[in-house]
Amino acid sequence: MRFNSLPQWLAWQEQLHFTEIDPGLDRIRVVWQRMYADKKLPFRIVTVAGTNGKGSSVALLASILSTSGYRTACYTSPHLLRYNERIVVDGQTASDQQICEAFDRIDTARGDVSLSYFEFATLAAADIFCHQDIDIAILEVGMGGRLDAVNLFDADIALITPIGLDHTVWLGDTRELIGVEKAGIMRAHHPVVCSESSPPATVLDIAQKLAAPAYVAGKDYTAETDGDLWHWHNATEQFKVLPHPALLGCYQIQNSAAVLQVISLLKTAGMEKINESAIRTGLQQVKLSGRFQLIEGPVTHIFDVTHNQQGAENLAKLLREIPCKGKTHAVIAMLRDKDSRAVFDALLPVIDNWFLGGLTGNRGQSSEELAAGLKEKNLDGKVHVNETVEAAYDRAFKCAVAGDRILIFGSFHTVEAVMRHIPDFINETLSVSA
């Protein structure tokens, strides 16, 4: 084995490939064929692509399937605190040893083929799943879909969540162009579920060309809210007075509705152990870190990985819905390729003070660069520029008094930095002297 520890493997992978992002399936396909030839994966696959709601949809689907008694695997990215979070079987993260052994098998098979960090992760997840006797794997696309490493594996069902403008340099600068990339996860004659009622026309056009049955929100399945409950139906079944999912935000009904359509298709395909009781329990027990993760205290803390306009608009709506006696302080840091101005515009009406931090790395944006997006907003005295995320949080925390709340958002890296910076976070016991 090349290395004996997971940190050593990861540090090496970060420098192995000539660029961090390198879309394409040729390299990863060669390595996988060397490992497994053309052997079909021995489990069902649901692939999830989209701009927002992917992580929530994966968590919701996994919660329902696991509750139903199916051995369920998930591959997601990026991670918050530990790399192992990316590879999960029945709620248990893969161990360092499992991942290192998978990396060794991949390294042996690849020969002189160069693989990116994400390609190594994707191959490791699939390899581990093949050793775990699972029933179904839920795979989250990293970026786009058509050329994403996850798309090496054929989806039995494709789920496409709401599509917005993100990664425009790689995917295109319109919803229609981005839709082409997301639609790449579809397979001929296999169903696709769209979380949006009006997905880009390109998505539906491609589905038609592939003879892939398309199930569109509001047309082929419907969700209706009724106070603290909601109802769902499609052409063949219905569920009434369902509990809201344990993930905050009215948009989680949209995610849950699409997930129930996937569930309905899986039942039709033979996964008959799924019943209404499992659906209710799965909705109520779902957990997902970093998605409007609220921690109560004298000063409430909210962690959210939102990093694009569509997500920021959802976040602003949720902040309005949840009352706050005091002020809302935002701690934000973002990657350079994100549209920070659009994010600011969506959240300006609900934020009292901005505490900007910088992110390191090739894609990181400095706090000074980030501040440029607020210069013309007439926010004198409300914008505080700090070199690091940690310094931004410390300053916000010092300014906060009882009844205020601190929103930490803008990137997985931002949320991770503050989570690690707060010693008591893991115990969810935050306190402040007012």
Q: How does this structure look, described?
A:
The structure is a single chain. This protein is of the alpha/beta class and 434 residues long. The chain is 37% helix and 17% strand. The strands form three sheets. Strands 4-3-2-5-1-6-7-8 form an eight-stranded mixed β-sheet, sandwiched between helices. Strands 12-13-17-14-15-16 form a six-stranded mixed β-sheet. It has a three-stranded antiparallel β-sheet with strand order 9-10-11, covered by helices on one side. β14, α12 and β15 form a beta-alpha-beta unit. α2 packs across α4, α4 crosses α5 and α7 (175-182) runs parallel beside α8. It starts with 5 loop residues before the first helix and ends in a 13-residue tail after the last helix. Mean pLDDT is 92; it is low at 426-434.
